[in-house]
Design brief:
By secondary structure, this protein is mainly beta. About 15% of the residues lie in helices and about 40% in strands. It contains five helices and 23 strands.
Length: about 425
């Protein structure tokens, strides 16, 4: 049996290739975050390689030479968009001339690298751990191996591919592992009488799921995040946990705006007033917070932008990336704290406009004794911002409503002005 490693740069050049007994160990690790109670959509994928290279085969380090085809040089590379920081890593395990494992990380970066020289053996021993870039998890390739999660319900369904989340538009995204011996519609309906608030939230999450269909990576990422959010909301509701739902979104209060650097229009202005759980948005962040364990699971939604001409004809459509949107919490064990802190943020650029400012905000929400809520949010003046919170199934209370005042000609250019920090403190009432 032999293990082969190949590291390739997008810009080309000589790859790093190790084999012929130089690789002594291989591990593939799939780790779900510790604050999840089911398999998470954003598991960490890692490949660990251990090996030893005879010193006589090591290339010399030369001044002003291209040493990037060595592992240690790649490990020392600092991130820049054009410096081959991310590389393609392929590992093959071959036995009797047959490949029994093949894993390829298309956007790998060095997470850990260490090496030492054994002078008695005349070898350099090394350990390399690489991870896939988070917004490229769907691109990991496992050769011909197809891992599938099958439905636990009795009726036949299309299986779900873990990596590609191939779920039909008619299926409500409850995790199959959590579905009882009944249809998914029954699962929704049972909350209609027992918990009307949960019923309303599941209905909204279903709409968000349906609005996320598309073949692009962002759409796939959103569907996985919504899937995990549904699972977690079902968990906290069914187990009687203390929980909160936080909803933050941005929208443009006009119907359209012009490109600051061109004559075409940028469509998809929302032209609406404030209101919770509205998918007519630029961005939406929705999180389920377990107040007993201080953990949060949520999804980051971005809309599809249309670029139109003066006649109203659509020139191009695109869903922007949600890779710079996040939820984090102060993860503590049960009983260690009487407050929960959730940090939320986004930086979403508009890829169809040459000059529209990004949608930037960062927020911190502190929930004390499951009733006193403090919010601090830093925003730009573009576009409008709103935030809401519900605790233990009560009605949504306003955290903030910050309305943009669009300029009559060009709302994008005139609203790119920092607004600053807004703070608020409320005592939550149902």
């Amino acid at each position: 049996m032999s293990i082969l490693l190949r590291v390739e740069r997008e810009s080309g050049g000589q790859p790093i290739e190790l084999g012929d007994g130089q690789i002594t160990g291989y591990s593939y690790i799939n780790t779900s975050p510790s604050d999840f109670f089911a398999k998470a959509y954003n598991a960490e994928h890692s490949v660990q390689i251990r090996g030893e290279i005879p010193l006589r085969l090591l290339p010399p380090v030369e001044q002003d030479a291209d040493n990037s085809n060595t592992l240690y040089a790649w490990a020392l590379t600092e991130y820049r968009p054009d410096n081959d920081y991310y590389r393609s890593v392929t590992v093959q395990i071959v036995r009797h001339e047959k490949t029994i494992r093949e894993v390829k990380f298309t956007h790998a970066y060095v997470h850990v690298y260490q090496e030492q020289v054994d002078g008695l053996k005349g070898v350099l021993e090394f350990e390399l751990v690489v991870r896939q870039r988070r917004d490229q998890l769907d691109s990991i390739q496992f050769g011909s191996v197809k891992t599938r999660q099958l439905s636990s319900v009795k009726e036949k369904r299309k299986p779900v591919t873990i990596l590609e989340s191939e779920i039909s538009e008619n299926e409500f995204p409850f995790s199959y592992a959590l579905i009882e011996e009944s249809t998914e519609n029954d699962q929704i309906e049972k909350y209609k009488t027992s918990n009307s608030f949960a019923y309303e939230q599941f209905a909204f999450l279903k709409k968000a799921y349906e609005a996320s269909f598309g073949d692009d990576k962002t759409s796939k990422s959103m569907r996985k995040q919504i899937q995990a959010t549904v699972d977690y909301l079902k968990y906290v509701v069914d187990n009687g946990s203390n929980y909160a739902i936080i909803s933050l979104d941005t929208f443009l209060p006009v119907d359209k705006g012009t490109d600051p650097w061109g004559d075409t229009y940028l469509g998809n202005g929302e032209k609406r007033e404030f209101g919770v759980n509205n998918l007519n948005v630029k961005t939406l962040q929705y999180g389920v917070v377990n107040l007993d364990y201080n953990s949060v699971v949520g999804f980051n939604f971005v809309t599809i932008t249309e670029r139109i001409n003066e006649q109203g004809e659509v020139i191009k459509t695109k869903r922007d990336s949600n890779s710079e949107m996040f939820f984090t919490s102060n993860l503590n064990k049960k009983g260690n704290s009487n407050f929960t802190m959730v940090n939320i943020g986004t930086s979403a650029g508009n890829e169809l406009s040459l000059g529209a400012p990004p949608l930037d905000y960062s927020a911190s929400v502190k929930i004390l004794n499951k009733s006193i809520v403090s919010i601090s949010v830093q925003t730009d003046k573009f576009p409008s911002y709103e935030g809401y919170i519900s605790i233990n199934g009560g009605s949504f209370n306003k955290l903030y409503n910050l309305k943009a005042i669009p300029a009559p000609i060009n709302p994008f250019l005139n609203l790119a002005v920092p607004r600053g920090t807004y703070t608020n403190k409320i005592t939550y009432e149902k």
